[in-house]
């Protein structure tokens, strides 16, 4: 069964190679590869036993001298993220069909290359491997954004790149420290879990990891790369960044931060939650008056991620499960949002809310799908967003009631800015620009239908997904609590 | 029969799906038929359930469908609760809903979005049913937010008008403020009782001491939720704006059903509220204030729908007053009667508007009595019903609330009665302005005025009948009835306040009836005899009139106190904090490094002498170190 | 007389080396340098390093200095036309030099090693002795310095020969 | 020993071949000679022979010899047509490079100060000359003279240091010196300390560490690119090997003493190298500053002396060497077409020559230290090395500098991929292709499976 | 000769060190203050000679001939270096008609 995981991880890489040399057929090759991955993921999910154990474990020596192993496996938490990745990649590839990218083979190869990196991040059980995946996912997306992005792309992407890599290098520092502390001298996650570090050590390891993750998510005040990058990146890049890449940070917190330095979390978790919650309100407020829809969604993403982050640090089953499902939901929704904006940009060459309006009257299909996505984002019950947000809020509530009162403002603010945007873009009278808007068709329709279907299905019947991660999440929380109570 | 309850919401959902998918392909007749038929089927089933429940000794049935969310100790099943309260709500929703659907066939016939409209209506019914059927707070919340969504969609139905779209947004956002309260209440309930199921929460809650802090917090949050949905102060301003939607929507959502969800929710949670007298007082006061405010504003409005909207606000305030004084059944009674007569009034107004080609300003109406006879007569019935003249339905329900208010606090009662007088006044003002006097519109329009088609008038007639006789389900004992409704609801709403003794009750009734009659007379003199017409917008008014006409400037106050500061904050955070400070620090680091680079590279002057000098300096310092360290 | 010879010669060394760096005319510098080297030769003799004294005399004074002089003449630099550095730089340079010598000597704590130099083996610096050393343990570097010299030869030819363009 | 002989003989053969105008044969002869020496490297693996107590061909020496020889071979492959257009004396150039390589092999294997000195000087003198072989080029002249003057000056300090150590310990032999240190640990003569510091200065100069780095940018920029590539890769590697042999082994007992100055040097080197590189307009000059910064990282191995220090330097040097060779190879190609080294000339390279652009990208990623390239492994082992002594602040500082590094390395990538440039088509000659492919393959292999090199020494 | 050297045996070693250090520093000062490349080069030679002298003194002090052998190597280097250095200077002079090092500042920043 392990072979399945090897196949899963390296199939996209093979796909990337094929795609790179596929010439004109690159986009189809990429899609085929992505769909095969998706099918594999489905097979994997079917074979997954939803308990707390790590399954499909691979463990091969890699760089033995440095104690580095190719150690990967899947548990419930990983599975959700793997599912997210392999579900969204084909959607994103399909969503890019509206563009005629130059050097398409390189473009699609990079996407698939990134997929391998992401899968490594989400399955790694070896800190070094995790780090490698972490960076391996970053490079392709940098190129995607910088080569195919907007006119300000170079500067903005440089900032993005340096910023994120700054975080990850400090994480590397933390990893090295843990490695040195580990008497076994390897990077095995289980060995890291067993380390007994004192409070000071845990504190600074917490920060070395947290900053990396916080930048990736991004949590206030490490977020300023994000709106610029999202705005300047090509739609595909934005979707990759917001849909999947951001989850690396969340996953990192769950997998690497909480269980390794529970005392650090205990000492600094409040700070993290406060930052996250500030981020929610702050980003929501900023989103209120954004003039560019893409930027607005970018800020909204900061707010949503802030909620997820706060939910995780609340350290309880509901918050964590909420984070799991919200990762999935946010990925789907944000991809949908950016895709709709991309469709609009493709046709109108602008994402300025003031320039748009009235599209709903000429493109009803788009209007409806967009509406569903918007309501998914504002967490209307019956959509996927609600499940996550509800669980997250209940998780945060158990941490602190005032935290939830402030974090809960997202419920209101989200509605305000999202509906403002929807109104500005879709409603009202058509103007000279939007009068000639063509409704969605072909691949656009397919993508949006898939996204809407996912939003509704997850919203109505989330149980299978929740079930996948439940045991793993509970075990993780127990583990953390045990560590908290046993020592000190 | 009761086990089939899942069909009740499911069928409208099917209608939504069919109409939604076929909105461009199916013919209007078919859409109208499907849209109405599904509601009718639901109605039929609801009736069946109602009688089945009546025959059943067990008054509470939980129908489990599937597990929805489960995380840790939190388990939320999707299950329905059929009990007297929900069964009666089913009847109202599907019954009134059906009539409004039928009405809409006529009303919306010429609209492009006919299919869309029906699908939205069906969806609304679905969510509303979910709201009342949910056996736990979360399912209720789904419906709660779902109806908010439909309200958003339907208010913004004519979205090309951007002020309509804004009204829709406003409605949704204001509802959301309440929803947050609801949500927090749910969290509190979950952590306090370990469950959100009604069947587990209420028995546990009954064990608690009254005035328990958590309970107070829970009920407060629930009340905030109810305020949002049921348009109470301070969250009521969305409801008048919601009149932007097509009139059947106003009738169905913003009069008969959705806005009463708050009352339903509080009635449902009466066990909790009974334990929190402080909150009950708060509810009573807020309700009363809302009732007065709504009535005061309604007096001077010129838009026929706005009058009805503020009247709705006012009536909702009444219901809250009822809840606040512990008359849950009275409040609920008013919900029912209000559903009848307010739906009727809105539909009549719709009929007028339909006839006037979407003219809503009463200053351009007048003398329509002859041209629209059915509309006139039905509207007259509705007006009398709302004014509270016996034996029309409004009389009984309003009186029950007032009687309980009197028991609770005389001042509250006095204000309540005064509000009732106001109600009678502005309702008859509306009636006179619309149907009496001379026609004040353009001649061109006058020629086209005609009575509405049967699909519209039949629902009017049915509703008029209901408005007229609907009060008999709750005839108080003092008038020889035995208050069937109260008895029916007693398994759900265990505790209810004692009614005052008969003599007092007679006196209260007399006062209110006489007062109402005087008000009507006053309106008659002013608007029929003297043919006064409200002045144009820009004309000068007295201070009080001006305040009323401009809705006490509440929208403007909100705008200045909340929206503008928030937008200013937004701009401040974005332009100053985010761009300048947070991003400025990041960019500053980059800039600093570049500047450092510019500076440092000057060291590389190209001059060998300088290089060697620097090297020597380095050597000297290293030697100094050596000297110092050994 | 004793050790005073050393001090006299040392003083001369210092004096002439100062003259080397302070005389404006490069040719004079070379000549002073030759004199300085001569004083070094004397030092070698005093240390009984006869072989080195000879080599120093031949290689430095004979070959190297002549080369310098030759180049100076070739380039026609026998005038004191060197644009001198500003006085500030000179002062700074001298101060730096003083600092250097202070720190250098200070770091050596040279005063601590006051034991007099005693020639334990009078034959130490004789050709025979050095030859044994050179062709014994130092055979390899000795051989390898041929590469160094060869390199220098090739380089000198390469750099100064006119290209056929 | 036979390695040096082979190289030296090859150099002589080349010199003679040059005399007989056998131009075509020069490069093959050199390569065959180097290949021969490489064979000797492999064959004497694990033998740890000591020659006359002067040279120790242990695995350390062999590994570094191997690396420098391979690096030289790759650079020699780039000489095709490189010198031909402005000189007749190709044989001499090759000969000088080979002589320098001789010096380098001595430097990596010395066991006696005299050998260090001889090796260093053979190498340096060759380089003084090589830097100036563009006789009519002002920049080349300037580079040569600057290098020479400052090199000679620094040699003085190195020699003074050797003298003082000799004075204190009474020997030039590294073992004897080490024995002296261990034997008199508490009463090491003050002369010795100063000697160590002066040697630190001399060697820092050779490897281009701040504040003794000033020659580096000017000389690298002024020298012919090919020579610069040799200087910045092979020579730098050798310098570090020499550094390591002396400080990591012989002077190890005094680690506490020279750690502090070394740290200062490391900090300064990282800072100056990275920060100054940021604002360069000239690609070659940027590479010069980047080489300074890499010197800073390489010195990490001396900050914490572990059993892996030597090997870490090898890994890092290998990563750096191959990536730099790629960079210089592409630079030479670009410069031959456009005439100067500025960044603008790389604009749009991805269109003109996608292969070169891709390869250069990988090289830049490696230099920047991005995972999956050798450069990352190099940086990683260095960080790991100093982290064993928990030099957290140093690593944090290095990380900050690495960030600056990303910035300027990515400028090249940005220029190649994201900017529009001239339409001049750039062809890659076969030999260049070979060099580029080999280097990139090594870079990636070391990045993906560094085990091949991690335990060499 | 014999007598002379015997006479001199009283000179303390540190005086040699001082002498070398001073001459070495004079060389450094020369390098720092002069602009003529040839004079700078001569100053470097001065530095080397200071080292040579010290090495010899240590050699005598340690009674070890290897120090003097090393001096021999330094001389060999000096010879090589002079050959190369002077040819570089000549080459530069050919191009710039100057041996002033301040002319050499085209490569900077």
UniProtKB/TrEMBL annotation, chain A:
GO CC annotation, single: membrane
Membrane topology: Multi-pass membrane protein
A matching Pfam family: Oxidored_q5_N
Residue span(s) of domain NADH:ubiquinone oxidoreductase chain 4 N-terminal: 44-120
Any one GO MF annotation of this record: NADH dehydrogenase activity
Subcellular location: Endomembrane system; Membrane
Domain NADH:quinone oxidoreductase/Mrp antiporter transmembrane: 125-410
Domain of life of the organism encoding this protein: Bacteria
Transmembrane regions listed in the UniProt entry: 6-23, 30-50, 70-94, 106-125, 131-148, 160-180, 204-225, 237-258, 270-289, 296-315, 327-345, 357-379, 399-419, 446-462
Key words, A-Z: Membrane, NAD, Translocase, Transmembrane, Transmembrane helix
BP terms from Gene Ontology: ATP synthesis coupled electron transport; electron transport coupled proton transport
Matches recorded under InterPro entries: NADH4_N, NADH_Q_OxRdtase_chainM/4, NADH_UbQ_OxRdtase, ND/Mrp_TM
Family: Belongs to the complex I subunit 4 family.
Protein name: Proton-translocating NADH-quinone oxidoreductase chain M
Organism of this sequence: Pedobacter nutrimenti
TrEMBL record, chain B:
Compartment(s) of residence: Endomembrane system; Membrane
Keywords annotated in UniProt: Membrane, Transmembrane, Transmembrane helix
Principal subcellular localisation of the protein: membrane
A GO MF label: NADH dehydrogenase activity
Residue span(s) of domain NADH-Ubiquinone oxidoreductase (complex I) chain 5 N-terminal: 68-118
Membrane-traversing stretches: 30-53, 88-108, 120-140, 146-165, 177-196, 208-228, 249-267, 279-300, 307-325, 331-353, 374-392, 412-435, 456-475, 506-525, 608-628
GO biological process: one example: electron transport coupled proton transport
Domain NADH:quinone oxidoreductase/Mrp antiporter transmembrane: 136-423
Membrane topology: Multi-pass membrane protein
InterPro entries, A to Z: NADHpl_OxRdtase_5_subgr (IPR018393), ND/Mrp_TM (IPR001750), NU5C-like (IPR003945), Proton_antipo_N (IPR001516)
GO CC terms: endomembrane system; membrane
Protein name: NADH dehydrogenase subunit L
UniProtKB/TrEMBL annotation, chain D:
GO biological process, one term: ATP synthesis coupled electron transport
GO terms, molecular function: NADH dehydrogenase (quinone) (non-electrogenic) activity; NADH dehydrogenase (ubiquinone) activity; quinone binding
Membrane topology note: Multi-pass membrane protein
Catalysed reactions, as listed in the record: a quinone + NADH + 5 H(+)(in) = a quinol + NAD(+) + 4 H(+)(out)
EC number: 7.1.1.-
Domain NADH:quinone oxidoreductase/Mrp antiporter transmembrane: 112-401
Gene Ontology CC terms, in alphabetical order: endomembrane system; plasma membrane
Protein localization: Cell membrane; Endomembrane system; Membrane
EC top class, as a word: translocase
Regions that span the bilayer: 6-22, 29-48, 60-78, 90-110, 116-133, 145-168, 188-205, 258-279, 286-307, 313-334, 355-378, 390-410, 430-449
HAMAP family: NDH1_NuoN_1
Function recorded in the entry: NDH-1 shuttles electrons from NADH, via FMN and iron-sulfur (Fe-S) centers, to quinones in the respiratory chain. The immediate electron acceptor for the enzyme in this species is believed to be a menaquinone. Couples the redox reaction to proton translocation (for every two electrons transferred, four hydrogen ions are translocated across the cytoplasmic membrane), and thus conserves the redox energy in a proton gradient.
Similarity section: Belongs to the complex I subunit 2 family.
Assembly mode: NDH-1 is composed of 14 different subunits. Subunits NuoA, H, J, K, L, M, N constitute the membrane sector of the complex.
NCBIfam families, A to Z: NDH_I_N
Protein name, as recorded: NADH-quinone oxidoreductase subunit N
From TrEMBL, chain E:
Topological type in the membrane: Multi-pass membrane protein
Predominant cellular place of this UniProt entry's protein: membrane
Record GO terms (molecular function): NADH dehydrogenase (quinone) (non-electrogenic) activity; quinone binding
First-tier enzyme category under EC: translocase
Transmembrane segments: 15-32, 39-58, 70-93
Entry's Gene Ontology BP terms: ATP synthesis coupled electron transport
GO CC list: NADH dehydrogenase complex; plasma membrane
Record's keyword terms, sorted: Cell membrane, Membrane, NAD, Quinone, Translocase, Transmembrane, Transmembrane helix, Transport
Domain of life: Bacteria
InterPro entries: NADH_UbQ_OxRdtase_chain4L/K (IPR001133), NUOK/Mnh_C1-like (IPR039428)
Record field: catalytic activity: a quinone + NADH + 5 H(+)(in) = a quinol + NAD(+) + 4 H(+)(out)
Record localization: Cell membrane; Membrane
EC code(s) of this entry: 7.1.1.-
Summary of subunit composition and partner proteins: NDH-1 is composed of 14 different subunits. Subunits NuoA, H, J, K, L, M, N constitute the membrane sector of the complex.
HAMAP family reported in the protein's UniProt record: NDH1_NuoK
Similarity field: Belongs to the complex I subunit 4L family.
Role description: NDH-1 shuttles electrons from NADH, via FMN and iron-sulfur (Fe-S) centers, to quinones in the respiratory chain. The immediate electron acceptor for the enzyme in this species is believed to be a menaquinone. Couples the redox reaction to proton translocation (for every two electrons transferred, four hydrogen ions are translocated across the cytoplasmic membrane), and thus conserves the redox energy in a proton gradient.
Name of the protein in its database record: NADH-quinone oxidoreductase subunit K
Organism per entry: Pedobacter nutrimenti
């Amino acid at each position: 069964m392990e072979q399945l995981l090897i196949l899963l991880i390296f199939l996209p890489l093979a796909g990337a190679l094929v795609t790179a040399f596929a010439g004109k057929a690159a986009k189809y090759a990429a899609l085929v590869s992505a769909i095969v991955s998706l099918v594999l993921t489905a097979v994997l999910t079917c074979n997954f036993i939803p308990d707390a154990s790590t399954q499909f474990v691979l463990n091969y020596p890699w760089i033995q001298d440095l104690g580095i192993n190719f150690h990967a496996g899947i548990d419930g938490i990983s599975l959700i993220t793997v599912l997210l990745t392999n579900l969204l990649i084909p959607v994103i590839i399909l969503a890019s069909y509206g563009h005629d990218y130059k050097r398409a083979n390189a473009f699609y190869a990079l996407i698939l290359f990134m997929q391998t990196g992401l899968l490594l991040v989400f399955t790694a059980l070896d800190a070094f491997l995790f780090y490698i995946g972490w960076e391996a996912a970053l490079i392709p997306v940098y190129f995607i954004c910088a080569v195919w992005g907007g006119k300000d792309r170079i500067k903005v992407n440089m900032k993005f790149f340096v910023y994120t890599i700054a975080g990850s290098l400090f994480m590397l520092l933390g990893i090295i420290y843990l490695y040195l502390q580990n008497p076994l001298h390897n990077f095995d996650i289980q060995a890291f879990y067993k380390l007994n570090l004192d409070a000071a050590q845990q504190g600074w390891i917490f920060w070395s990891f947290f900053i990396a993750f916080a930048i990736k998510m991004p949590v206030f005040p490490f977020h300023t790369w994000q709106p610029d990058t999202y705005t300047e990146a090509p739609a595909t890049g934005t979707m990759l960044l917001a849909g999947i890449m951001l989850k690396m940070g969340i996953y990192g917190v769950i997998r690497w931060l909480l269980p390794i330095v529970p005392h650090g979390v205990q000492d600094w978790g409040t700070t993290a939650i406060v930052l996250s919650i500030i981020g929610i309100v702050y980003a929501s407020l900023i989103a209120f008056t954004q003039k560019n829809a893409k930027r607005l969604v970018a800020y909204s993403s900061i707010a949503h991620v802030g909620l997820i982050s706060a939910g995780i640090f609340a350290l309880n089953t509901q918050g964590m499960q909420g984070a799991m499902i919200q990762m999935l939901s946010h990925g789907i929704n944000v991809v949908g949002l950016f895709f709709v904006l991309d469709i609009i940009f493709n046709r109108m060459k602008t994402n300025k809310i003031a320039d748009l309006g009235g599209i709903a009257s000429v493109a009803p299909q788009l209007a409806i799908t967009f509406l569903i996505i918007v309501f998914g984002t504002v967490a209307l019950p019956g959509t996927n967003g609600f499940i996550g947000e509800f669980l997250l809020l209940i998780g945060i509530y158990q941490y602190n009631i005032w935290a939830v009162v402030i974090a809960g403002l997202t419920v209101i603010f989200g509605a305000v800015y999202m509906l403002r945007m929807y109104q500005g873009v879709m409603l009202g009278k058509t103007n000279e620009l939007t009068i000639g808007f063509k409704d969605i068709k072909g691949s656009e329709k397919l993508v949006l239908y898939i996204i809407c279907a996912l939003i509704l299905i997850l919203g109505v019947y989330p149980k299978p997904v929740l079930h996948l991660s439940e045991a793993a999440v509970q075990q993780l929380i127990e583990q953390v609590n045990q560590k908290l109570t046993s020592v000190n | 029969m009761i086990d089939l309850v899942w069909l009740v919401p499911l069928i409208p959902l099917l209608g939504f799906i069919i109409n939604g998918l076929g909105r461009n392909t199916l013919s209007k007749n078919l859409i109208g038929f499907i849209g109405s038929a599904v509601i009718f089927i639901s109605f039929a089933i609801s009736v069946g359930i109602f009688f089945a429940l009546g025959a059943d000794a067990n008054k509470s049935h939980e129908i489990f469908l599937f597990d929805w969310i489960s995380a840790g100790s939190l388990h939320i099943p999707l299950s329905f609760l059929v009990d007297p309260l929900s069964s009666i709500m089913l009847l109202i929703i599907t019954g009134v809903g059906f009539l409004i659907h039928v009405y809409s066939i006529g009303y919306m016939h010429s609209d492009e979005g006919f299919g869309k409209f029906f699908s939205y209506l069906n969806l609304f019914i679905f969510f509303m049913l979910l709201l009342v059927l949910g056996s736990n707070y979360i399912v209720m919340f789904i419906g709660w937010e779902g109806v908010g969504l439909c309200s958003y969609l339907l208010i913004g139905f004519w979205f090309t008008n951007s002020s309509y779209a804004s009204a829709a947004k406003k409605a949704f956002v204001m509802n959301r403020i309440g929803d947050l309260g609801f949500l927090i209440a749910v969290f509190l309930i979950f952590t306090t009782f370990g469950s959100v199921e009604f069947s587990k929460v209420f028995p546990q809650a009954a064990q608690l001491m009254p005035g328990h802090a958590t309970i107070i917090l829970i009920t407060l949050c629930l009340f905030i939720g109810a305020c949002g949905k049921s348009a109470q102060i301070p969250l009521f301003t969305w409801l008048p704006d919601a009149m932007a939607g097509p009139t059947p929507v106003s009738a169905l959502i913003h009069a008969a059903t959705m806005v009463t969800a708050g009352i339903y929710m509080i009635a449902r949670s009466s066990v909790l509220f009974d334990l929190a007298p402080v909150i009950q007082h708060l509810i009573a006061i807020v309700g009363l204030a809302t009732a007065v405010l709504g009535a005061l504003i309604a007096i001077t409005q010129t838009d026929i729908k706005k009058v009805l909207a503020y009247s709705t606000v006012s009536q909702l305030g009444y219901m809250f007053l009822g809840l606040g004084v512990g008359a849950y059944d009275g409040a609920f009674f008013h919900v029912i009667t209000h559903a009848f007569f307010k739906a009727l009034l809105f539909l009549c107004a719709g009929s007028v508007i339909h006839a006037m080609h979407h003219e809503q300003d009463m200053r351009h109406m007048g003398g329509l009595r002859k041209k629209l006879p059915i509309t006139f007569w039905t509207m007259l019935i509705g007006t009398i019903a709302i004014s509270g003249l016996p034996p029309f339905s409004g009389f009984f329900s309003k009186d029950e609330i007032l009687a309980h208010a009197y028991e609770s606090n005389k001042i509250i009662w006095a204000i309540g009665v005064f509000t009732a007088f106001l109600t009678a006044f502005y309702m008859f003002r509306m009636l006179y302005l619309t149907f009496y006097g001379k026609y004040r519109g353009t001649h061109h329009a006058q020629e086209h005025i005609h009575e509405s088609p049967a699909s519209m008038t039949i629902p009017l007639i049915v509703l008029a009948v209901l408005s007229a006789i609907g009060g008999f389900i709750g005839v108080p004992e003092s008038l020889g009835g035995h208050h069937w409704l109260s008895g029916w609801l007693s398994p759900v709403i265990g505790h209810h306040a004692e009614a005052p003794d008969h003599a007092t009750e007679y006196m209260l009734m007399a006062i209110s009836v006489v007062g109402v009659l005087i008000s009507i007379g006053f309106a008659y003199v002013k608007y029929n005899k003297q043919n006064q017409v409200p002045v144009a917008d820009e004309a000068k008014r007295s201070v009080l009139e001006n305040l009323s006409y401009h809705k006490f400037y509440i929208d403007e106050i909100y705008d200045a106190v909340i929206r503008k500061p928030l937008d200013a904050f937004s701009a401040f955070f974005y332009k100053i904090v985010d761009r300048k400070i947070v991003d400025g620090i990041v960019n500053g680091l980059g800039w600093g490094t570049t500047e450092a680079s510019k500076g440092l590279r000057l060291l590389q002057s190209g001059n060998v002498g300088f290089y060697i000098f620097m090297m020597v300096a380095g050597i000297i310092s290293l030697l100094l170190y050596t000297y110092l360290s050994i | 007389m004793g050790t005073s010879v050393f001090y006299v010669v040392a003083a001369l060394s210092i004096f002439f080396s100062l003259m080397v760096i302070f005389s404006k005319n490069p040719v004079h510098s070379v000549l002073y340098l030759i004199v300085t080297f001569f004083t070094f030769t004397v030092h070698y003799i005093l240390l009984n390093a006869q072989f080195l004294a000879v080599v120093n005399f031949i290689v430095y004074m004979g070959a190297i200095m002549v080369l310098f002089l030759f180049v100076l003449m070739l380039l026609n630099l026998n005038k004191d036309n060197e644009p001198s550095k500003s006085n500030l730089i000179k002062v700074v340079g001298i101060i730096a030099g003083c600092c250097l010598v202070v720190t250098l000597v200070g770091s050596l704590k040279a005063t601590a090693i006051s034991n007099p130099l005693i020639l334990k083996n009078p034959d130490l610096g004789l050709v025979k002795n050095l030859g044994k050393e050179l062709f014994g343990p130092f055979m390899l570097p000795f051989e390898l310095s041929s590469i160094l010299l060869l390199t220098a030869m090739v380089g000198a030819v390469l750099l100064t020969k006119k290209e056929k363009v | 020993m036979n390695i040096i002989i082979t190289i030296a003989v090859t150099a002589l053969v080349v010199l003679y071949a040059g005399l007989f105008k056998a131009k075509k044969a020069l490069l093959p002869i050199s390569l065959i000679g180097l290949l021969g020496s490489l064979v000797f490297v492999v064959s004497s693996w694990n033998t740890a022979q000591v020659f006359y107590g002067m040279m120790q061909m242990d695995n350390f020496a062999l590994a570094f010899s191997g690396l420098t020889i391979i690096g030289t071979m790759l650079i020699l492959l780039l000489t095709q047509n490189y010198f031909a257009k402005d000189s007749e004396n190709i044989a001499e150039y090759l000969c000088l490079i080979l002589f320098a390589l001789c010096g380098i092999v001595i430097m990596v294997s010395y066991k006696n100060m005299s050998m260090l000195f001889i090796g260093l000087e053979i190498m340096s003198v060759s380089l003084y000359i090589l830097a100036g072989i563009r006789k009519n080029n002002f920049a080349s002249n300037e580079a040569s003279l600057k290098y020479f003057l400052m090199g000679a000056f620094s040699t003085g300090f190195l020699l003074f240091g050797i003298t003082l150590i000799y004075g204190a310990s009474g020997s030039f032999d590294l073992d004897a010196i080490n024995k002296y240190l261990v034997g008199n640990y508490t009463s090491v003569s003050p002369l010795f300390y100063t000697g160590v510091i002066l040697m630190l200065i001399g060697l820092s100069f050779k490897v281009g560490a701040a504040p003794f780095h000033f020659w580096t940018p000017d000389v690298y920029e002024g020298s012919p690119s090919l020579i610069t590539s040799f200087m910045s890769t092979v020579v730098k590697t050798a310098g570090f090997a020499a550094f390591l042999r002396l400080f990591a082994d012989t002077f190890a007992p005094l680690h506490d003493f020279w750690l502090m100055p070394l740290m200062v040097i490391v900090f300064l080197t990282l800072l100056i190298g990275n920060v100054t590189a940021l604002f360069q307009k000239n690609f070659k000059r940027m590479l010069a500053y980047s080489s300074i910064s890499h010197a800073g990282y390489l010195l990490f191995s001396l900050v914490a002396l572990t059993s892996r220090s030597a090997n870490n330097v090898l890994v890092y040097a290998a990563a750096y060497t191959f990536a730099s060779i790629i960079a210089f190879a592409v630079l030479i190609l670009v410069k031959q077409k456009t005439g100067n080294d500025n960044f603008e000339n790389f604009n749009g390279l991805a269109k003109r020559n996608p292969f070169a652009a891709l390869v250069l990208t990988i090289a830049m990623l490696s230099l920047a230290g991005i995972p999956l390239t050798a450069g990352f492994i190099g940086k990683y082992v260095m960080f790991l090395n100093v982290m064993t002594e928990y030099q957290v602040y140093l690593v944090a500082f290095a990380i900050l500098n690495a960030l600056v590094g990303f910035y300027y390395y990515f400028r090249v990538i940005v220029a190649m991929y994201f900017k529009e440039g001239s339409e001049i088509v750039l062809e890659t000659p076969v030999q260049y292709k070979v060099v580029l492919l080999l280097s990139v393959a090594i870079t990636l292999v070391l990045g993906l499976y560094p085990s091949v090199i991690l335990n060499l020494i | 000769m014999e007598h002379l050297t015997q006479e001199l045996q009283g000179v303390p070693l540190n005086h040699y060190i001082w002498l070398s250090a001073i001459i070495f520093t004079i060389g450094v000062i020369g390098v720092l203050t002069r602009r003529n490349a040839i004079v700078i080069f001569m100053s470097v030679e001065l530095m080397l000679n200071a080292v040579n002298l010290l090495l010899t003194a240590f050699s005598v002090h340690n009674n070890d001939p290897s120090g003097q052998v090393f001096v021999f190597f330094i001389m060999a280097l000096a010879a090589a270096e002079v050959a190369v250095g002077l040819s570089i200077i000549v080459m530069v002079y050919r191009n710039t008609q100057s041996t002033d090092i301040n002319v050499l500042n085209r490569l900077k920043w």
